[in-house]
Amino acid sequence: SQTIHQWPATLVQPVGSPLSLECTVEGTSNPNLYWYRQAAGRGLQLLFYSVGIGQISSEVPQNLSASRPQDRQFILSSKKLLLSDSGFYLCAWSGDTINEQFFGPGTRLTVL
Amino acid sequence: GIQVEQSPPDLILQEGANSTLRCNFSDSVNNLQWFHQNPWGQLINLFYIPSGTKQNGRLSATTVATERYSLLYISSSQTTDSGVYFCAVERFGQNFVFGPGTRLSVLP
Hints:
The structure holds two protein chains of two kinds.
Chain A: E1 3-7, E2 10-13, E3 19-26, E4 32-38, E5 44-52, E6 55-58, E7 65-70, E8 73-78, E9 87-94, E10 102-103, E11 107-111
Parallel strand pairs in A: 2-11
Antiparallel strand pairs in A: 1-3, 3-8, 4-5, 4-9, 5-6, 7-8, 9-10, 9-11
Chain B: E1 4-7, E2 10-14, E3 19-25, E4 31-37, E5 43-48, E6 52-56, E7 59-64, E8 69-74, E9 83-90, E10 96-98, E11 102-107
């Protein structure tokens, strides 16, 4: 069966520091991968999605970037964090036939 | 883009009660999912239901795509049902858009 991992689970970073969040999927090949952000008490906002290695689409302009160096690895990065980058970051995957999305456990980021 | 509304925004139930959550969307969609976000933040898939009716234990869902809404029924609610329920819709060739959620609290 398929599983999706995210790490770290929680992160506290100072303003201006870099960021790297990692997401990996097991048990499937060529998944579609997604990064979402959820602000406190709010819904999910799609940040990036990828349909294959090296293919990244951004949904909103922001201080973040994404990369997909391997088929089942998706990385969310920032060179300099802002206070507004705080939130709950969720990675998701879907297959290439039926677009049912499955989510990882998330990373809770606090920027101080 | 497509708009997704969920009602009610908040719901408080006594354990054992039944409830209906609603998701309205502004345009035709080809996919719809219901999720439960537990108190630890994990999003749990409940239903993948672009149309029709599905049941899974105490939960069932109905999507009427032609009328642009979906309903999630929770029967005999339990405290573990507490959390936020999201619907998410996908329009042809576009990515999923999430509704704002319904926050459910089930009291013992």
